[in-house]
Amino acid sequence: MALTCHGLSTESKDRQGTCIWFWPDNKIFTTAIEFDYNTLAGRIRELAFLNPKLTITLKKEDNDPEKSLYNEYFFAGGLFEYVKWLNADKKPLHDVLGFSRQIDGTIIDVALQWCSDAYSDTMLGYANSIRTIDGGTHIEGVKASLTRVLNNLGKKSKIIKDKDISLSGEHVREGLTCIISVKVSNPEFEGQTKTRLGNPEVRKVVDQSVQEFLTEYLELHPDVLDSILSKSLNAFKAALAAKRARELVRQKSVLKSSSLPGKLADCSSTNPEES
């Protein structure tokens, strides 16, 4: 595939940006090639969310004007708008939370929101604008920090009254939509498809930054903390009830399988003469 970039001169005031032309190499792509507009649009929308100062236009030209397509993507709110877009049909418990900071050369952007009518989590991770579908150290850092912070604040605020209760990551993340984007100077991608971030130093700085932000924000907004922990505690109770129900079913199955055949009866006396 040939890729050509044309940078505009600094004297150009009316036009700014980069023009890119590319053609599939017919020595590699030997069959007819057709680009899917919706696939390209999805990826370009994603890039526009990840880079809030960037405007990207996508245009499909066709001999038939009615088949021509054009879209422009620009999201000043960045990841905040990304989370809002993902949660458009849900019932948020609070406004989107998030921050952007740089630690030891790593740029970290995080946005997150819990919804009352969602019962699983949506966690999207990016490294240098590349989607890490298999997770990585940045995702691990977020998860560890979320679980620790909410357990600590829950017990400190007495919302979690039982000292023996410890919320797991699964309970804490129920209903959560979270996006983390990191920009790393020397990213280490792992896995066969290179879709997992492996930099160990990233986990540390992400964990630290999420803990600092979330602790400060939730201590200043106890109503948000209460709503998040209420949902997490409900998830904990539901999981506990489901576990007890499974154990009860297993006990009944064991008792049923260990009973004597129908034509036989249990002895009612230990005296052989009475049997």
Automatic annotation (TrEMBL):
Recorded GO MF terms: ATP binding; DNA binding; DNA topoisomerase type II (double strand cut, ATP-hydrolyzing) activity
Keywords associated with the record: ATP-binding, DNA-binding, Isomerase, Nucleotide-binding, Topoisomerase
Example GO BP: DNA topological change
Name assigned to this protein: DNA topoisomerase 2
SMART domains: TOP2c
Function according to Swiss-Prot or TrEMBL: Control of topological states of DNA by transient breakage and subsequent rejoining of DNA strands. Topoisomerase II makes double-strand breaks.
PANTHER family, sorted: DNA GYRASE SUBUNIT B, MITOCHONDRIAL, DNA GYRASE/TOPOISOMERASE SUBUNIT B
Reactions listed under catalytic activity: ATP-dependent breakage, passage and rejoining of double-stranded DNA
Gene3D superfamilies, per database record: 3.30.230.10, Histidine kinase-like ATPase, C-terminal domain
